[in-house]
Amino acid sequence: MYREKMDLRIKLAVLPFVDMHFYYRDFIGELGRQRSTSDYRSYLDNTFLKELLPVLHQTERINHLDEVGMLVEKYYPHRMMNECTYFGECPEKFYLERLKELSRLLLTHRNGKIALKYWDNTDEKKNENSIFSAYRGIYKVALWNSLNRMICTDLLVMVYLISNGMKDEYVLRSYHSLVYMPDTQLDQLLNEGVAETHLHLSASGQFQLNWQAMMSPTPKTRDIVAVKSHTFIDALTGKQSDPRVYTLVAAILRLVLAAYLQSIQGKIIKGNLSISYFLEATLKSNSDKYDTPERELYRLIREILNGEDLVAKGYNSDNLYHLYEDVKVLVFTVELSDHHKEATWAQRMTDRDSLSRIFGTGITYTSPENVFMFRAVRYMSEQLEHDMLDSTFAKLFWQYIRIKNEQFTRAVQRNHIRGLPYFRDYFEKSTAQSLAQDDVQHWGFLLHHQLQNPHIKKLEVRIAPPQGNNVSVLKKSLALKLLNIMKAYREILVEFEEITPNRLAPLLGIVLHFIKMPDMQRQEKCWFDYNENERNDEKLNYKNKQIEYKKQMEAIRDLRERISGLGEYIVGIDAANLETYVEPWVFAPVFQQARNSDTHKLVYPDYPHKSIGNLGLTYHVGEDFRHMLTGIRHLDEVIEHFQFRAGDRIGHGMVLGVNVSKWATRNRVVVLPRIEMFENLLWIWGMCRDGNPLVDLDSANLENRIMKIAEAIYISINGITVYSLWKSYQSKFQEIGTLLSCIEKNTIEEWFDEQGKQEMRWTAEKLKSTYHCNCYLARMREPIEIEITREEELMIQQMQQVVQQKVSKEGIVIETNPTSNTAIGEIENIFEHYIHNLNRRGLPSEQLVERGIMVSINTDDPVVFNTNIDNEFAVIFHSLQDKGYAREDILHWIDHVRKTGLTSSFIRNRQVSLSELVSEVGELIKEMSDYLYG
Q: 621 by DSSP, 3-state: which?
């Protein structure tokens, strides 16, 4: 409820900036025109609320309509709407005033950075009814964590700077893409260095990088902005089905507005300096001719100003892209110089932005988009200071902002819906955008974005290996991908060496993560028809997928042990994607293969002085689950069957820290496949058998529940014991297909005939075969509903504690990702993050083994959650303040977690200078090139 109510308030406050309904209709102007109180109330009730409540309901939890009505009156009060819009004649003034109010509440600058103001200022203390008066002090951290994923906050920053008299563009050096959240003392700790150990490289950028690519489309990339396969989620959240039209409209608007702003640079504002005069001068030469770019642009601008439905007007991505190309000819005034590879990454990024042909190429201290936003806000603010307003410019600019935020909310995930299926849509849309024409620069922009943070000492990035079953082809494809990444890394290091030669070299490590995918084979599963020699692997459940994963693993090991030095950079393996797609048993032989020291080389044959480090193991598990027992079981299965050792890691592992009682309250009835609950109970039975007795567990009742589900699956339970069922469950972790031929039946008909006989006796071997038989799989996968009783809740709590103790004693590290976990998982709000339940060492009154699990703090997917590693540490820091711990204890705890991140990284500790690292990576690139090209 906490985050739902907070998110509702935020959405209502920023609705005019983020919702496309305001693009089509001027609700703010209409509100401002309601002069009498009765007219105002009537408009709110009969128009504003009725039109916008369905919009709110698509993404917010509305418990009481009265609450929404009261909040609307608070955020859009009658007198304010009259005064700030000049009775509806100038609604654009309201937008600036609303942003000023938010910036005063939330922003400050500290040590050369735009930072979050997490304390109450004087105005807030005086005004008990400020816009977010209920969220003061450190609660602003939680507020910002949600706001930052609801609206592109760079606009707030520009308003803050201009409102505080900082009108020279050089101040933008203090801001790139995110507001800084750590306070001074936390910043000092982070200066000691951090490790990022859970980061997907393809999602490691920021929305601003993607937006720049969208605003500078090419024939190759212009359609990528709309991922057509994800229209379901767009419809679910009220988005337009195809954003390409309006994205291209924004690209055209951006060029026109920027060209005008450039034309008035340094000029005194007068009445005849307006965008209308500029457009007239630009378009007048051909204004009387039909079918000219100038006339088409004029028509488009008129329709944008009127809020027309451009798709209904006949616009499409083809004609708008051609118009975009024509507008470039009209407004471009700067010739780009040819930059060689030695150009800085900032310069390369600037050159890729279409605004560089308007503003010039000297903007490397920030992004051209930031300069554009800054100039636009400055222009409108200065006009209002002189009691003027270029209303055409302002209307066009706010339309641009709405389109930008529409794309922002498609790419950045909020708190609306939990679970990985919802997240996956955001991930795939956010990572579909190519940032450059070639792979080296694409990876380079992403790596540079991360490595320019001086706090990062170790950066582990996760990439997916190529797919396929031919090991030779897999190795070549993987080597090429790694070569491009290492080339980009070296170029970044060279730049660092030139600019900051005394900086400690940031170390890069690559974790290759398999993609969890369901068995999509259309073949009926039938173990009896399986024959290894005939290669009909599709007859066995997940056999094809396991073979593919094993081939990928073989390619990874062969490559890192063949290319001298590559083992220093391929540091680990992982598996990611929806947990419901693939259970751990499919991956068990693959991870055992990775850990097998029988075939692992100690040194490179041609370079015996170079040792080859072991691969670190990590695995996404316990992040998203139907039933808590399932999540805990899967995590335990990974530790037991993947041969995890001290120093290996679990990705997310939320199920270990989630409060069981709160989860049970929200999930009194759970729906899940029958086999899932069946194996949960078998796992508990096996854990008790192995010496982990549960308090007050009725073992007879447990065995009775197991046998009831067994009867629903197998019909006849003749010969079945709980032990034989448990043995069958344990056999799943062997390589798929092992020993299936041991059943002595000559034909499949005999096998099926026997199933109908009551006298047929089951054995563990026969039970094992049912995992690969459609007859039994259908009953196993059938959804059933389970009530979470008080007894079930106690059982979950005890099993959670058992596995917590195991993780703690074994030295397994949990990779937490605060914002990601809050958006995806069973967490009420950022201050209730589960990290506090896993590790409390150094915090008062908690020294239990299960409260001493080693943890690290990471970002997961920065572009999806609009965050970075510094801000992830900050939200956890402030959450501990919220719990009332002493600041000294908090700082000690944060420092301990920071060090755990560094020591648990799979990247080996090496004190190397930048020049040494540049040389080493250069040698590796040569080795990889020789391998690929001879």
A: strand
Residue 311 has pLDDT above 60, yes or no: yes
Residue type, 653: G
The answer to whether residues 495 and 344 touch, using CB atoms and an 8 Å cutoff, is: yes
Q: Which of 163-172, 361-370, 753-762 has the lowest mean pLDDT?
A: 753-762
Distance CA 792, CA 783 (A): 19
Q: How confident is the model at residue 226 (pLDDT cuts 50, 70, 90)?
A: very low
Tell me the three state secondary structure of residue 270: coil
Cα–Cα distance for residue pair 209/446, rounded to 1 Å: 9
CA dist 640 and 678 (Å) reads 19
What is the pLDDT, as a whole number, of residue 521? 64
Give the relative orientation of helices 391-411 and 207-215 as an angle to the nearest 10 degrees.
Answer: 120
Q: Is 622 left (phi over 0), alpha (psi -120 to 50) or beta?
A: left
Contact criterion met (CB below 8 Å) for 876 and 835: yes
- Look at residue 587 and give its three-state secondary structure: helix
Specify whether the CB–CB gap between 877 and 190 falls below 8 A.
Answer: no
Residue 106 pLDDT level (bands cut at 50, 70, 90):
very high
Q: Mean pLDDT lowest for which of 325-334, 425-434, 505-514, 896-905?
A: 425-434
Higher pLDDT, 225 or 390: 390
Q: How many residues does the chain have?
A: 934
Q: Which is nearest to 567 in space by CA: 610, 629, 613?
A: 613
Q: What's the CA gap between 648 and 639, in Å, rounded?
A: 9
818 close to 835: Cβ distance less than 8 angstroms:
yes
Pairwise CA distance, residues 523 & 536, whole Å: 10
pLDDT at residue 427 above 60? yes
Q: What percent of the chain has pLDDT over 90?
A: 65
3-state secondary structure of 164: coil
Cα separation of 442 and 432, whole Å? 12
In angstroms, the Cα distances linking 701 to 100, 681, 707, 802 are 63, 11, 10, 21
CB 364 within 8 A of CB 347: yes
Render the burial of 858-884: b for 16+ CB within 10 Å, e for the rest: bbbbbbbbbbbbbbbbbbbbbbbbbee
- pLDDT at position 461: 97
Instruction: For residues 771 and 585, give the distance between their C-alpha atoms in angstroms, rounded to a whole number.
Output: 12
Query: Measured between alpha carbons, how far is 129 from 139 in angstroms, rounded to an integer?
Result: 16
Place of tokens 């051909």: 286
Measured CA to CA, the distance from residue 761 to residue 349 in angstroms comes to 70
Helix pair angle (244-263, 317-331), 10° resolution:
10
CA 10 – CA 5 distance, rounded (Å): 9
Chain-centre distance for alpha carbon 307: 32
Residues 6+ apart with CB under 8 A from 272: none
Quote the tokens at residue 803. 């596995």
**Dihedral over alpha carbons 268, 269, 275, 277 (to 10 degrees):** -80
Answer yes or no: is pLDDT of 743 > 60: no
Among 80-89, 424-433, 620-629, 691-700, top mean pLDDT goes to 620-629
Other C-beta atoms within 10 Å of 372: how many? 25
| Terminal CA-CA length for the chain | 62
Residue 546, Cβ neighbours under 10 Å: how many? 23
pTM for the whole structure: 0.94
What pLDDT shows up at residue 755? 60
Question: Which percentage of the chain shows pLDDT scores above 70?
Answer: 91
Q: Which 8-state DSSP code applies to residue 44?
A: I
DSSP assignments along 61-114, one per residue: --S-HHHHHHHHHHHS-HHHHHHHTTTTT-HHHHHHHHHHHHHHHHEEEETTEE
Distance of alpha carbon 439 from alpha carbon 487, whole angstroms: 10
Question: What is the average per-residue pLDDT within 906-929?
Answer: 93
Contacts of 521 (CB under 8 A, 6+ apart): 538, 544
| Calpha distance 39→88 (Å, rounded) | 14
